[in-house]
């Protein structure tokens, strides 16, 4: 059995992009460690107690079977044309020094003796500045820690296009430019691993639902998340029961 470290930008990303994989790894007996770069807050962290989104993350992690949750110490950078100043207590992740952030992550990889790192593709998925930074920091941390396996979470662009058509068919409001989204994520030819995680659809769906602030909020993805958690589990598994990765390991194994 091995230790796998999953590196994500914000609470809820772990469930949406890799929830089935994390549940599968835990079910197979591996130690699963989840590191988030930010706690999802745009402002200063509360003085007393853990931020709500981190509490939601711990609930999600428990559902998926994650053994340890770590916040790397940065603030959310936000998405969109405005890049706000840093809050008084920490640096926004996208503005952080890449080497310093990589050293923080590498220290956890060393401590855990992680055999594999899950991180993001070069586009940061849909292009969020924090997701792009996860890719940069994850790659460098794996080099520093000499992590033998590195898989970058992504989605094939043609799958994104099909999901967008379904979203429009169901009349779910989505405040994204569809033309822009189809240039994000990865070409199918770049993808090396596709995992069938339909067996873990209920866990993945419950993990998404644990992020109440995102499901019930007014953000651009909230209507989609609300509809997702109301789907019958078999339909949820049919739509979101596969997860994709690009193997960028220093010495790529011949098979998964």
Structural class: alpha/beta
Helicity, in percent? 40-55%
Please give the radius of gyration in angstroms: 17 Å
Large-scale geometry: globular
Would you kindly provide a written description of the structure presented here, covering whatever features stand out?
The protein is of the alpha/beta class. The chain is built from eleven helices and seven strands. It has helices at residues 13-27, 52-64, 98-112, 124-127, 129-145, 157-169, 178-181, 201-209, 212-215, 222-230, 233-240, and strands at residues 3-8, 31-38, 68-74, 116-120, 149-154, 193-196, 242-247. Strand 2 (31-38), helix 2 and strand 3 form a beta-alpha-beta unit. The two termini are 15 Å apart. The mean pLDDT is 91.
Summary?
This is PIG-L family deacetylase. The protein has 11 helices and 7 strands.
Entry keywords:
single chain, 256 residues, alpha/beta, 7 strands, GlcNAc_PI_deacetylase-related
């Amino acid at each position: 059995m091995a230790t796998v470290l999953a590196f994500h930008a914000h609470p809820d990303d772990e469930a949406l992009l890799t929830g089935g994989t994390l549940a599968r790894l835990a079910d197979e007996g591996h130690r699963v460690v989840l590191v988030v770069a930010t706690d999802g807050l745009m402002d200063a962290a509360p003085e007393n107690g853990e931020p709500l989104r981190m509490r939601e993350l711990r609930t999600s992690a428990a559902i998926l079977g994650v053994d340890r949750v770590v916040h790397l110490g940065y603030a959310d950078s936000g998405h969109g044309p405005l890049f706000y100043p840093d809050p008084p207590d920490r640096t926004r992740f996208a503005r952080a020094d890449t080497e310093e952030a990589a050293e923080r992550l590498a220290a956890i990889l060393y401590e855990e003796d992680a055999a594999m790192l899950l991180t993001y593709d070069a586009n940061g998925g849909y292009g969020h500045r924090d997701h792009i930074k996860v890719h940069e920091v994850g790659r460098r941390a794996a080099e520093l820690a000499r992590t033998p396996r590195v898989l970058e979470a992504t989605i094939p662009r043609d799958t994104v296009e099909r999901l967008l058509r379904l979203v429009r068919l169901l009349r779910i409001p989505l405040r994204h430019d569809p033309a822009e989204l189809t240039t994000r994520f990865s070409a199918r030819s770049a993808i090396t691993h596709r995992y069938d995680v339909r067996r873990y659809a209920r866990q993945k769906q419950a993990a998404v639902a644990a992020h109440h602030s995102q499901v019930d909020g007014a953000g651009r993805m909230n209507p989609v998340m609300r509809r997702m958690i109301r789907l019958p589990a078999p339909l949820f598994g049919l739509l979101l029961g596969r997860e994709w990765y690009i193997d960028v390991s220093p010495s790529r194994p011949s098979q998964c």
